[in-house]
Each structure stands twice: as C-alpha cells, then as structure tokens.
Amino acid sequence: MSLRFPDPEQRSAIAAAAKEAGVSMQEYILSAAYERATAVEATFLAHFEASVARSHEAFAAEPSSIDPAPEQRAAEKQARRDLERHEQGGAA
Asked: Biased-composition ranges for Basic and acidic residues (predicted)?
C-alpha cells in the first residue's frame, strides 16, 4: 500500500499515533478504516432494526388483506362450490 499524504502535518500526526499504538502506519490506517466501516455498519443495522420494528407495529395495527378472516375464507369457498355446481348443472 502506498501511503502518500498531501499534507505533511497529517502524515506526522498519523505516524505519531501509529508509533504510540505500536503498529505500522499501514496497520494503523487499515485498523482505523475498519473501525469506521464497522461503526457505519452498526449504525445502519440499528436504524434498520428500528425501521423493521416500526413497520411491524404498523402492519400489526392494520387488519391484513392478505390473510382474510376465517368467515371471509369460508364465504369464498362456499361461493366457489356454488359456482362449480352451477357450471356442472348448466353443462349437463
């Protein structure tokens, strides 16, 4: 990895921090980048979980049109049976 810094003060600050941590500049920079990335990931996941919880609450509060009530399901089955009987009787 090539470490080029346009700002000499930035390079000096990073070199001093790496020396204090007892690691190379490359390792220090990679560790810092990894920590930042995992912090961003953790923040994203926390917000995503909060969003899922809000969505779940919203859907739980509304009656679902995807899964009809047992009465509606029974009425639909009866209507289908009546239609099938009518079609069979009309074809005979």
From this structure: 73-92
DSSP tag of 23? S
pTM recorded for the entire structure: 0.49
**The two structure tokens encoding residue 88:** 């069979």
DSSP 1-41: -----S-HHHHHHHHHHHHHHTS-HHHHHHHHHHHHHHHHH
- Other residues' Cβ atoms within 10 Å of the Cβ of residue 12: 11
Is residue 25 within 8 Å of residue 3, measured between CB atoms? yes
Decide if pLDDT at 62 tops 80: no
